[in-house]
Amino acid sequence: MLLALGVFPALGLAQFSPGALSKAHTKLDGPTHCTNCHVGGGRDRKLKCTGCHAEIKQRLTANQGLHPALMDQVRMGQTRRDDQCAKCHSEHNGEKFVPIRWDVSLDDFDHRKTGYPLEGGHAGVKCARCHNPERIAPAARKVILMKDLRRTYLGLGTACATCHEDKHKGQVGDKCERCHTVAKWKDVTRFDHNTAKYKLTGAHAKVDCAKCHATLPSPNADAKVVRYTGIPFAQCADCHKDPHRGSFAAGCNSCHNDFAWKPARNTQSSFDHSKTKFPLLGKHAPVTCDKCHKTSDYKAPVAHEQCKACHKDIHGGQFAARADAGDCASCHTADGWKPSTYTALSHAKSLYPLLGKHAAVTCDKCHQPAGAATRYKVRYQECIDCHRDIHAGQFADASNQNHCEACHTVDRFQPAKFTLSRHNQTRFPLEGGHVAVACGDCHQKRPELHDAVAYKIADRSCTGCHLDPHQPPVRGTRGTDDRLASSVKQSSVKQACEVCHNVRTWRQVATFDHSKTRFALTGSHRGAACEECHRATALSVGARKVVFQNAPLQCVGCHEDVHAGQFAAMSESQGCEACHGNIKWKPGKFDHQKTSFSLVGAHERVPCKDCHSSKKEVNGRVVVFYKPTPKDCVSCHGPKLKN
User: Fold this and answer.
1) How far lies 622's CA from each of 54, 564, 579, 580, 629, in Å?
2) What is the DSSP secondary structure assignment for residue 38, as one 8-state letter?
3) Taking the model in full, what pTM does it have?
4) What are the pLDDT digits (tens) for 287-317?
5) DSSP string of 273-319, one letter each residue
6) From the centroid of its chain, how far is CA 352?
């Protein structure tokens, strides 16, 4: 601060100096110079300090520096302002007096009063670092009255360049605060690149400043000057190397944007790939350029005639032998690898058209994985190439060769198309009652075939399917028909059944000739049902055995003895047939002449009951007894006895 003039006391009209002036004002000493500093006349002391101290006047007018803060702001006007100088500067105290008064020490001085607070890196800096002649600009030196500039605090500007070297060498002006702060020089977050001519967008916003603002040559080899102005940016090539080496006449932004170099294409791309030999369709559209263009030379030819030029053949060359060399476009599109365009209709043109149930089978049922690929060239000549042989090899012989189509169709596995007419061409034609029998009744699952249904039946005899009701097997035992036993010995079991039965009905046995047995059927016996003589015996629940082997040959074997054993003592030759015949039961051939009472004369016409009238009740039944019968006449012809 400059020294202000002291205040001379007014002594009325007589102007006498109250004391010598300080060394700085010595040239104004003496009564002839009073009006240079004081306004003449009047009772108030009025000073004209700023009349000489123009640098102070300038600061007061601009409200700059410490002096405006020390002035009474209520008092306005130049005269009143000059009168306040005496508060800090006193005069007429002798030549050696320094007319400057400080209320505080320099260490306690509040720099905020100057209008320039010391903050950040400025805080704690010694006063002499800034307040020294080297920092005072030449223009300010001219108006400072203090000749010894080491003693003044005037002349300093607030611009950074007043104390600091301009690292940018005038490239960005003197408004350092636009980018820097007093806290830290390298903190440039205050700078907004959007206010510059080149706004940072996309990936450019993340680029380090030094990538674009490189150092410039400087006359001083040790100094580095960073370039901030005059940097070309109209084209990408101003900063970036052209990886395409001039292959494209259009600018980089026709394929790229500043958000990312890859992928190359963007929604604003002006490059139309559809005008090339390979339009980008479907899934090819979002593919980045470098996936196909392996080098930066985009004019170099890229093989694209077939998919395998870029894509791996995941089918392992299975279709290489086709007319189109296995081109993927036959089954796939650029819209997506799956689903395939190869449909059942397409399959109809192959060597194996999909018909019937095969049309609904999913591809992976037949075309299964084979390592990393899927097997599409599969065996299909035989059904068992895909299907399990549920017949356990019964038709693997030379005549059938497991040809499933002989009995089945692709429309359905069941029912089989093995008809009755075809069954009649086998070794077991279906006749009679067999025609109506369900297949499963004869063809059943067998353990020896691992529970497969048996169709090759070795035992085709009747007992192969039917329970033999005549068990145990016929043997030549006593009472057995010899011819039946003989026929069984000479033929198979099936042929044994056919001796009596046929395939039309089991119960029809009319073909059996009973006359060839030991018991020929004559008379009333011819009309008797078989079971009346061949009676069934219970074997178990739900099963019965019909006796044919030891059927009785005597009358009493089938008929009840109505005579209550009267003739049991007779020999076999004198049995029932001695009196009765099989034509009718009533005796017609009994020869009474062979008895002890011959019938002669009128006795021949007498009914048997007239003589044989003796009756007894046996087992609840009245039986006529033929013995004893009286032989004397009076027993039959005597007088009638009266009761």
Assistant:
1) 182, 10, 20, 20, 17
2) B
3) 0.43
4) 888 888 888 777 788 998 888 888 988 888 8
5) GGGSSS---GGGTT--GGGT--SS-TTS----SSGGGTS--TTTTTT
6) 32
